[in-house]
Amino acid sequence: MTKITTPSHPKHAKIWDSFMNGDFIDNYSVASPMPPKDAAEIGLSMPRWAMALMALRNAIVRPLGLKSDDIDEGQDTLFPITYEDADQLILGVDDSHLNFRISFVRHDDRIHMATWVHRNNTLGRAYLAVIMPFHVLIVRDCMKRIARHKGTAPIAS
Questions:
Q1: Is the dihedral of CA 31, 33, 37, 42 positive or negative?
Q2: pTM across the whole model
Q3: CB neighbours (10 Å) of residue 65?
């Protein structure tokens, strides 16, 4: 059985450089030997149900002028990489309503995945409140896929 824990994100994680009082941040962690980039590749290769939710989200937010299907900028991941070193990978985008980052950190034989969100306005606060239940489902599923993967190489497409 996959043991997902929710400790604090590692204190040395680069994502803390962006954190301000009032920002949202969560953390999920699973035992895993893989590097952060491989974990991100496996975790963010979303199942059909999650991709359907993303498509619905894009259809809803497009008329509001929020970023939608232009998120992928030709990289192997769903979101652009904003920071990378041997033990950390941060992906994310800034938008008018909120800025967000997903942080993958390898620490103490575990992969930690945190989502940081800075809400820029009322729309950002409302948006985060609406998507939160879906966020939790998607992230927990992501962590289960990472935990099930035994090797260090990404899953072949």
A1: negative
A2: 0.80
A3: 11
